[in-house]
Design a protein that fits this description.
This protein has two domains: 1-90, no CATH class; 94-142, no CATH class. The protein is built from seven helices and no strands. The chain is mostly helical and 155 residues long. α2 packs across α4 (76-90).
């Protein structure tokens, strides 16, 4: 029998490794990320950074998806309070690929306006034209919730 990974997908070799890495932070964590805070704030922060790294540094859709889904499984209120700090410590704002994955995650999380606008400002204020262009592509992150449905980003 193939065991499901943290997000309910059949396990691949990568997903099994990913699950083991999560469980190294706390037993059973890969099965229930919503309880991450029961392992303490320092551990929860490490888990968020691990998942953010997977979501934004990953070179394959499986790594990116596991990271994104893992972050979505964490307590939302806590993620919103910790996200910018984790981004500052984890994501290179000089790397268009990482920045694009971060904005895709921001869209997926449907971040509040103040957080989304902060992420966009980093790209818009950059001297790097690729980062500016990427930020412009994701300008809808700060659009009103009453606006038309969001277009999917082009990869």
């Amino acid at each position: 029998m193939v065991e499901d990974d943290v997000v309910g997908r059949p396990s691949s070799t990568f997903a099994v490794s990913f699950r083991r890495q999560l469980d190294a932070y706390g037993q059973g964590l890969s099965k229930d990320l919503s309880g991450v805070l029961s392992f303490g704030e320092p551990t929860a922060r490490q888990v968020l950074r691990f998942l953010l790294t997977s979501a934004c540094w990953g070179q394959g859709s499986e790594s990116i998806g596991l990271g994104q889904d893992g972050i979505r499984a964490l307590p939302r209120h806590w993620v919103l309070s910790e996200l910018m700090s984790a981004v500052d410590e984890t994501i290179s704002m000089d790397d268009e690929y990482e920045y694009r994955r971060l904005l895709e995650l921001a869209r997926l999380l449907d971040l509040p306006h103040e957080i989304a606008s902060g992420l966009l400002a980093r790209g818009l204020e950059s001297a790097d034209l690729d980062l500016k262009e990427t930020a412009e592509e994701f300008a809808d992150l700060t659009a009103s919730r009453n606006a038309l449905p969001r277009a999917e980003p082009r990869s």
